Amino acid sequence: xxxxxxxxxxxxxxxxxxxxxxxxxxxxxxxxxxxxxxxxxxxxxxxxxxxxxxxxxxxxxxxxxxxxxxxxxxxxxxxxxxxxxxxxxxxxxxxxxxxxxxxxxxxxxxxxxxxxxxxxxxxx
Amino acid sequence: xxxxxxxxxxxxxxxxxxxxxxxxxxxxxxxxxxxxxxxxxxxxxxxxxxxxxxxxxxxxxxxxxxxxxxxxxxxxxxxxxxxxxxxxxxxxxxxxxxxxxxxxxxxxxxxxxxxxxxxxxxxxxxxxxxxxxxxxxxxxxxxxxxxxxxxxxxxxxxxxxxxxxxxxxxxxxxxxxxxxxxxxxxxxxxxxxxxxxxxxxxxxxxxxxxxxxxxxxxxxxxxxxxxxxxxxxxxxxxxxxxxxxxxxxxxxxxxxxxxxxxxxxxxxxxxxxxxxxxxxxxxxxxxxxxxxxxxxxxxxxxxxxxxxxxxxxxxxxxxxxxxxxxxxxxxxxxxxxxxxxxxxxxxxxxxxxxxxxxxxxxxxxxxxxxxxxxxxxxxxxxxxxxxxxxxxxxxxxxxxxxxxxxxxxxxxxxxxxxxxxxxxxxxxxxxxxxxxxxxxxxxxxxxxxxxxxxxxxxxxxxxxxxxxxxxxxxxxxxxxxxxxxxxxxxxxxxxxxxxxxxxxxxxxxxxxxxxxxxxxxxxxxxxxxxxxxxxxxxxxxxxxxxxxxxxxxxxxxxxxxxxxxxxxxxxxxxxxxxxxxxxxxxxxxxxxxxxxxxxxxxxxxxxxxxxxxxxxxxxxxxxxxxxxxxxxxxxxxxxxxxxxxxxxxxxxxxxxxxxxxxxxxxxxxxxxxxxxxxxxxxxxxxx
Amino acid sequence: xxxxxxxxxxxxxxxxxxxxxxxxxxxxxxxxxxxxxxxxxxxxxxxxxxxxxxxxxxxxxxxxxxxxxxxxxxxxxxxxxxxxxxxxxxxxxxxxxxxxxxxxxxxxxxxxxxxxxxxxxxxxxxxxxxxxxxxxxxxxxxxxxxxxxxxxxxxxxxxxxxxxxxxxxxxxxxxxxxxxxxxxxxxxxxxxxxxxxxxxxxxxxxxx
Lengths: 124, 687, 208
What we know:
The complex is a heterotrimer.
Chain A: H1 12-15, H2 19-41, H3 47-69, H4 79-110
Helix pairs in contact in A: 2-3
Chain B: H1 26-48, H2 52-60, H3 65-96, H4 115-149, H5 158-180, H6 205-233, H7 246-278, H8 291-325, H9 332-345, H10 361-373, H11 375-389, H12 398-420, H13 423-429, H14 433-462, H15 468-494, H16 510-540, H17 579-585, E1 599-601, H18 607-623, H19 627-645, E2 652-654, H20 656-664, H21 683-686
Antiparallel strand pairs in B: 1-2
Chain C: H1 23-52, H2 55-58, H3 64-67, H4 70-95, H5 99-129, H6 138-171, H7 175-204
Helix pairs in contact in C: 1-6, 1-7, 4-5, 4-7, 5-6, 6-7
């Protein structure tokens, strides 16, 4: 395996650095976080809608960072990063989602509920 | 923030006192004497034959993937024997301590092991077998074979490969150390919560278990990264994705699991560490802890881990069965798809380990169905193997016999697994030995694959035949023993025997327990044959050709036996899926390259070994709460990594004339041969 | 396989002078995979936080809205994203081999990271001083460990940057140094991305 004749600075992953992308990434992330903070501070949304709004803002922020900061795309230099990320995302969702689901079910069935939420059961 | 602990503590020695040495336990003294004698013999032999330098230069500091793989396998085999000794003690205790009138010796009321010691033994048995025997052996096999199968010169990161090995070794040494300094966890290999919490396990046992696993699993994660990058980036020209051997495919998917599952184990144990060291309340019974959280996190890793082990086993069968059927593998594409389907589903089934936790029927139902779905791709694989056998020209060599036995074990383990996937059945056999028998069928299938692989690739790596006669005896005794032990165990499960019993209260189980014990004796015989097989092979040293079986199909059998340290003198061009079979069919398998060229190789490095030993000191310091040792070792690791990053070593080059000389006299390039000192490249030469 | 073509005169069996593989790409992919693995660590920590973020696990101690301050968190977010932006702009200077530019980016990045860690340490020490440390309740354990794990990543990132500040002038932009700079950029962006998730989930949604 001989060392490539070209300079390491000509490597595509060095070449892909771009000032406008990083500045755009910084600005969009900041704006989105600020928007999420505004929504949080003026709490007038019901919980579900609030979660969807802030969660959505976070999702957009993550996508911006993936595209602008990480520069992920399907070019030869980046394809494997993109593929491995796409393959791993379901694992994030599965492990958090199924855990929360299981504990919710467990809490409903085993924990002593506050009086207001106790439902009459067949035994009573 | 240091948590109050029971017993004495000093800044210099932490919790370590002379009383931590179990010199009053006869079994451990005998074990220690045995280990000391073997250790002295090995050290004495190394010194007598003046091999210390050789050992250091050619093995301990090596970055060669084959040597690292072989060391992984040796480590795994040593730990396999240790795990077997634990299993033997469990079975013997249960065969002795039956009923209130059973006698007790060596300080036990019944049998020969007091409950606390018995608990440590079954905890160690599980931990050792899964994490320190099966995992290193399979990692070692993938290490040796995959770079050869894809026509690479080495792994993508040879130095990191050595680091993985030494981290795993550090974990294994900690487990062994717990025999003679302090004690091991008595809370099961899964770490039954809240038994592992400080108030209920105030000793160092749980800490040994926890840190040994943590350190070795960092090694496994690094190895997973290395393997994936190797397979993606290091394939020989022409080795397109759908020409990859199935073993390489399964290695890829298994390492994807390793990469993503082991961090979760790290968190599960790390949070337990926070509880034990910082007084946190993740899993405690009071102050807002949640016991189920541990079980949940542990099995998020635990189930993918099962497939982490079984997928390479499937890959091994997929290599061996076509070779000894003289046919290409049936349904290559479906085999690859099934491999990835299994890896994918493995992430959505973990809850079947605790159906009885009281989650609702919807949750249990989801995980039950997901678990049963695993049966579909597994079934596809089994049928593919069967269709490969169908109308093949079968040769029943030892690797083939192991593979076929593995299929039977897969059937028994798989079908009982389907039964356990049904929550209703699971409720009645949960924590019974039926479950134990089920998963032992699965892990022994992995064991069968490991032995198949060792007998299949041993001649390739070392260039000598593995004795077939003793190999066959090893196979038949081992398989017979497996049948005797685990069929009896299935029966006991239905009779209601639960796991982890130090005392058997129902004498009706005696016949089956004694049957199991007889099976264990047969296992001892089989280990004897294994040792004899190695001894006879090393004594006779019958050389083998490049393809020892004559019908092998994949690229690793193209290069010489023993494999030279540079793997392929000239990188092969791949033209077909089963490259060697293709060349043989067209009469090209003997063709050698016309000319040799300069080969660039990485230099050996002592730093992985040093980091491994520092990691061991790091673990030891944490276990005994010797804070200075912990801090110094951590600092040492950071400094070693930084020093390594300043290293300007560019590797060395072997000139074509030297390659030609080694190709003529293969023994000089083999795995055992000692290489002369070669000068590393200078900056000027590299450009 | 029957689909594999038989050999012809043009068939090559060996590939002499095979150039091998691009080391920088192998290293960045390897590091990327490490980051995915690290992301799973945070996934598990988030799962633990989700389970323990309820009044029962607070065990009478403070709950999320009493522990976190989303407005202050925004300042931390500014700092951490600014740190990433300065480092990334430093790697733009790498394109022209401008050592001073790269090092300036790294130094600014370290300063902003220290600002972030300053905020964080101040918060955590304040909680500890009130007796609300990780030993207080299951909820606080989850909070502390999640925040501290992220902080620890930043500490290691800073150590790495300091090493690079020595290596750039002494070793120049060799393939190894360039690969490390690219990896460090990914790592630094990764911890910022994790922080965005922590901010949204722990400081906002979890504290609703």
